[in-house]
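Protein in question quoted in full.
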Amino acid sequence: MKRVQIHGAQPTAIKAMMGLEGYLETIDLTGKLVELAKLLASQINGCVYCIGLHTSGAKEHGASPQQLAALPDWRNSSDFTTEERAAFALAEEVTLISEIGVSDAVYQDVQAHFSETQIAQLIMVLVVVNAWNRIAGNRWCQLPCAGSCPGS
């Protein structure tokens, strides 16, 4: 079925999303953490395009093959730091926000590892990747889309 292509029908919307991507390039979180959090959210959402994009990004920022393989089952892996685990728990709860919201336990764990500024930045990483997952994962953006879609 032919679906609307947001980049063609609403280019200002994609431009706004790219503005958020530009903001993410200025944050204090490590590239590895950002890419792993984006990858986990994309795995939860089942966005194949974004999974590929953020797997490559995580590799470029130093994620090991073991970490990439273990990410879907991060709770049972010794390949991640306590900081990464806190970020992944937040990533899961933000991505699945309609299920339980962000629990106090997860938020307190995040507070133990990140400053208020970094928490806000991590939440924005998750908001942006979840938005892209809904655009690319539902084929609202025909890929490849000549520089108009996520990660272009």
Residues 116-136 form the longest helix (21 residues).
